[in-house]
User: Fold these one by one.
Assistant:
Number 1:
Amino acid sequence: MKYAITIILTALIVGMGVTAYFKGWLPTVSFNKPQAVSVENIEVLNAPSLAPVASVSASPTAGFTVVKAGGILVFKVYSIDVPTDWTYSKEAAPVGDIAIDKLILTKGSYKITIYQAATGGAPCLYPGDPDQEGPSSRFASFVGITTATGDKLRRGKADGGGTGFTVCELQSGGYGQPTGFGHISVSTPAVPTQTVLDQIDSILSSLKKI
């Protein structure tokens, strides 16, 4: 009897549940499939802006002008570095005249002249050198200079004084003039400053045979 009552109650509960389902009395629960999210057109607000990285380009300030001159007769074409606080000018003979080429560098009362022309030469003598027969130039003192192409020069002070200097070059038989660049002379005030003389030597050391 006890089991019969249990079976009857269970059947009633199941029957009521089935009836409620088909009558629509029970709420329905639906599960939506999640959709894929597209990030293609999403705008990011308040994003920090990155400053462009500056590219470094080398723009050296040389402080001098490279001047080319010469190349007539037996002399070489050459270049020389002229500082910006110096000026330069060129002179040449008119067409048909005897060939000359002159480059003049100027700074106030200081002047460097490089002169190529058909002129004679002479040995340069310095303290300790014996006298030689024939024309020669003797100097009381000198400063040694090596050019950009390895040429050995001497800026000499003439024996007996004066306000200028003459530049000679080491050749096969000793120092002589003209040099392979031409005759080189330096004019200065009566009392030149060592600073400008050092600058003159630096300019002469930039000479380069081309």
Number 2:
Amino acid sequence: MQTTLSKGDFARRIGVTPGRVSQYIAAGLIGPDALDGQGRNAKVVVAKAIEQIRQRRDIGQALGNGLSTKLGLDDNELDSEPGDAGPSADESTRPTKTPTIDDEIKRERLESERRRNRIAAQEEAVRRGQLLEASRVKAEMTKLAQAIEDENAGMLADFASAIAAEYQVPQRDVLHLLRRIRTEKKAGAADRARRRAASLPEQTETILEDNAA
């Protein structure tokens, strides 16, 4: 059978003042079908009233002073008809619960907590050196490659001078030959690097593990 409480007892049950319950009734958050009787002596049908408050109060109130409101239901407060098995009945026979604002708040809180945990894990991995920003790595590798390129280019004149002196040929001709060979080799190396890069995935997954003791 339905569990009913006086307005004062119902107010204590959900953690609000009796005046707040009266406001719920006046505003339609608790409808006439959730009241047993009429007037000041009407009692509140607990399960139905709680479900109506869950569904009808606005999100602003739920996130504000409504957070302290106790809108959970005990098994003995669930509506049941005479002859029902009550809480011991097969759970699969109970009707599907309609999602409420409270359910949405819980989902949002859970997602927010998961998001904070993901961000914290990423920041910790960065501090440990497990993760690096791709743009920073690319910039550093580009600088390194350019430094090597400049160093090698500067050596060609020295190579040409040594070869010219050894074989008694014009240094300019030797330098021109070395530069041409170097350009051809660079083109081949760049082509091989592009083919290797094309076979790599754009993104890779990594598992962040807590290595702390």
Number 3:
Amino acid sequence: MALKLAIPRIKLMKNKREAHVQQLKRELAQLLESGQDQTARIRVEHVVREEKTVAAYNLLEIYCELIVARMPIIESQKNCPLDLKEAISSVIFASARCEEIPELKDVSKHFTAKYGKEFTSASLELRPNCGVGRMLVEKLSANAPDGPTKLKILTAIAVEHKINWNPESFGAKESKIYDDMLNGPSTSMEATKILADPPVVQASPSHEQRPPGVQFPNYDNGTPNVQDSKHTGRSEAPASFYEHNSRSSLHPNNFDHSNASTNNSVSSGNYPPNSKPH
């Protein structure tokens, strides 16, 4: 039966994963020793994933051995025995998630033919009362580890390889703050405090709220018409001043007769004494 072939395959893949975990830990130890904490923080996720896979293979090995030992009881009963439901459902659940062990798919097909597609679908989809072990579901999940878990693993690696590494350099405080931002307030008191203390926004002063002693121009009727004195021919003197000058310059009493007589003499050719041209 395929179930008997699955057990040695599980052991082989488990040993391979364990060797890979040890190699990854040595690489992480070198990163910590050289001060590359950020790189170690990323690669430690591979260690967590490999260790979870090894733990899942341990559970699958136990389940498969239990099913092989109880195979006569399984064959003699039409329905799934209650004391074997967790083992059988867990193997069916893992058959779709452990591609390295193709024998589990054959086992799943065998139980589908015996108990029906509904039984198999409930295990694959994790329906209520499907019987799949919670520990196996957790180990085969793809959830990334949180900050404290990474820090714990890196600290253990540093102690194992006798490396003088300070966990504070890893940024434990920053990771805690980052996790708090993602997870939100941990207690109802913190959430109430956030809602009770909204940010204060100070409004800019308007025309209704003016500081004492300060006057603001009123532009309600439009912008004032401002003319630059450089572009105008006159200064800011009143208009009556220019009108008075223009009238006084044309008055007969203000006319200069001496200038007029001089002009007439020049035009007629008569020159005043001592001014005749040579």
Number 4:
Amino acid sequence: MLTAGDYSNHGRPLQPETSLAELNLPRVLCVLSSMLEKLVARNEKLIDILSQELDGLNSGSVRLGNSLNTFHGVRAPSISIPKYLERIYKYTNCSPSCFVVGYVYIDRLTHRHPDSLVTSLNVHRLLVTSVMVASKMLDDEHYNNAIYARVGGVSNAELNKLELELLFLLDFRVMVSSRVFESYCFHLEKEMVVNGTGMKIERALTPKAMDDLETEISIEDKQSPSPPQIVE
């Protein structure tokens, strides 16, 4: 299984990363990746500050909540959040609305478990799991866990475990009303104004294809068997 750094295009190295906007991808991916990158940076800065203060007091290491431990990796994956979101959208056939609802789930997690922070060690697993659950709630047709595992760079067994963990952490509160959905869309659009774009995010369902999935990634900490082949 290739790592994120092993992306290739028929044997040729890929060109430097292109922005989501330049690739004509849904605007929700751009604003969501920006918000998550800021959240991760803020949380990791907080952890560093607390660690330095505790070191000065000889009080040991920072102790955070363990609610998100199942989603933690030993090291941060090399693939960026924008590229990871792009990959999920491109290959899973999910609608743009799934990313909004996936964000709702992550936000609910942080409010229900405020002592557990979203960091570079868990954000990728949280994303692929949240979007997958959202697609099951929103889309009439969606890929199964094996496909999401292949796209997300984890084993099918691990993704099954992550899905169950997410559901229990949310107390199975995975329904999102139209009012809540619109409020999160509005919040994301306000963030776009702050970023200087000031455009509305997509709410319509947009079918995609997965028959050109040519590259593999892995965000697992250990080498795993090759992922299952896509079945027709």
